[in-house]
# Entry
Amino acid sequence: MKSKIIYTYPTYGSFVRNDIALLSKYYEVRTFAFDPPKKILTPFYFFRQFFFLLFNIKSTSILICQFAGYHSFLPNLFAIITKKASLNVLGGTECVSFPSINYGNFNKFLLGFFTKWSLKMVKHIAPVHESLVISDYTYTTDDYPQQGYKHFCPSIKAPHTTICYGYSSTQFYKSKDKKSNSFITVAYLNAPNYYRKGIDLIFEMALRFPESTFTIIGNNSQMKYTSIPTNVCLISSVPYEELKDYYSSHEFYFQLSICEGFPSAICEAMLCECIPIGSNVAAIPEIIGDAGYVLYKKDVNDLEQLINKALASEKKELGIKARNRIITKYPPQEREKLSALVAELIDNKNSL
# Structure
């Protein structure tokens, strides 16, 4: 009989879907989505989660939370009370504070409180990149020069194991011919993300490179823009299965974020032979390596120079190099380390 896992998450993204599929190969996974459609309903979700945990905790071997915040507080508290193993997977927002763009759990008092106590109670932490533990931040000068959960909560003692994501080269591959001098990025657009994802930089580059085309997937109909360059194409949501075709038809992928953890879209785009151009933030430079271009400071003139270099490069060869880099460094088996860690935590708890 498979051991049982309680798995709690706030939003059902691709990373959640993939981790649930991975863990379901070895365990019986009971999931709880802590995703109130309105903030006022958050107390009601605490109430629902309490009874979900109460009815499922007895036969559970480990409680796992994707990210940390309101949704991880009760599972980690239940784990302490019942002496169960617990694990928090950290992706980025729960490890940072960027007041200039009003982003990050530690930028909000109440959410920061629940995040802090979740991480103080949990038995083990699995960030997707080492920079989320503690790291120097130099891309902009508007916010804290250090980021990571240990910077904001130095009293957290739980051990951590860094486990990055892995990507399928058979799911993402070049399926179409590429349009010359074309750029693409994927970002859900709201007011904070306009700056967090570097959309302001992309709009400026569109003005400076009128012969190029710029595609942004994730536009929100409620977003208001002062003006949109004529060579920018804004697209709303796209089914995950169709992203491959959009990546494939573009030569370059932008990941110009002010803050990230381990962004998946840039890896998927690189598998489709997009040449990456990204900011010097968290895992982005490591992902790009020598297969693309890194913007070390948020500066429009520096970015313009990078784009000129990119446009003059051997684009076909560099696109193939980008694909091979993801295949080599981040294969699907990389994420299998998560299931191995879960097994270890369960075994260690059972042996006590």
Observations:
- Residues 42-56 form the longest helix (15 residues).
- The domain at 4-165+333-350 is CATH 3.40.50.2000 (Rossmann fold).
- The CA atoms of residues 10 and 34 lie 5 Å apart.
